[in-house]
Amino acid sequence: MMLVIRRIAEKGYNDTAMWHLELHKKFGERLGIYFGTEFKIVLSNLEDIKEVFIKNFSNFSDRKNPLIFEMNNLNSSLLQNTYKNGWKHTRSTIAPIFSTGKMKAMHVTISSKIDTFLEILEKKSMGNEQWDIYEDIQRLSLDIIGKCAFAIDSDCQRDKNDLFCVQARKFVSAVDIRKSWILTASFMLPELAYLWKALYRFTDMAKAEIPLINGLSDIYERRILGEGSGSVDLLKLLIDRKIAKREVIENCFAFLIAGYETTSTAMTYCSYLLAKYPEIQKKLWQEIKLVKNEGTLDYDSIHSMKYLDAVYKETLRYYPPVIHFINRVCLSDIVIRGQLYPKGSVVIAQPNTIHRSESNWEHPGIFDPDRFLAENSKLEKSSNLKWIPFGVGPRYCVGMRFAEMEFKMTIAKLIDKFELGIPMGEPDLIPENNGIILRPKDPVRLNLKLRK
User: Fold this and answer.
1) CB atoms near residue 207 (< 10 Å)
2) Which CATH architecture has domain 2-443?
């Protein structure tokens, strides 16, 4: 049984993006699927998505989390908390932390971490060996989150044995449905939730979670006693709002696992795409040079760059990192646009399907940042539901602005310093799905040439 489950997971989840596209082409924009006894409705029609995720949010306010995940330390976080248990209060408390003022205060820290990243790349680019830039970008993202979220001064970019780095990467690696028959089976047979909950503690994910939670708890206690009182970071801002310890730790944990791999994966995809399409890279570099001639690459100048914004949006349209997390539970029977949504059913909007739909985008298989430029204002104004890498409706990702700032600052400084290229004979990048994240299957090797 375990072998069969593993094979289904490997086949189904690796091919899931194309599989869903084909299903929607064959059966239409509303698609019903049973996982065991659990009924799921997958939508790709924008009007349906608007009605369910926005207009009727009160009847679809909760995200469906696999019941096995109720055993983890995320139940009080924005990722898993329910409306009934205080999601709205938590959201309203955390949202101001990502205001423009707070982002500007954090951008200096992010910029210094990116400078370290560029120094490392410069040294590597002088050698003859090729390396995986994805790993370097992952370490950068982890370094940024460690400092901006917890005021941790780790050396994870230079030291592969850095404790924070090892623990975080171990947990993220364990969140892979293909590596655990227990996690796989819990998705496929949700009616056996009592069994999967009992078995959760035996998973690598559960084991890897313990040292991270203990570490965050220790940091919390030190911060309560005044350590790092002058720092501007997520943990301090949550403590200042008098939130309960458990809620603080779980939301910090959620920020770590939600922001680390998603943003690093998106930045890796962007680096690869710019290397693959040199004319797009050149156009972006010209914009960067123009901005630098007028000043520096700071928070305001980065966010004033229209072509960088277009590259950012097109990267996330073309390769949305998260593809299995935008869902809502139907709380009571309701009919919307002639479709019955039964109580307990799960409604899903898949970014990859919506982003690659020919009814939503012209030539969706082509990487073309120009589609997001201001001169295409008609598209820009109507594209809010066509472009959903951060979710839809009131439960969209609260850390979206932080991720955008990290992405844009990293890519701008990277392209300002290096010309990126694809090594001769290097195979095309192939994304694979671990059940939640669409990430590169193989090492991403690029040529980096210092600009004069």
Assistant:
1) 13
2) Orthogonal Bundle (1.10)
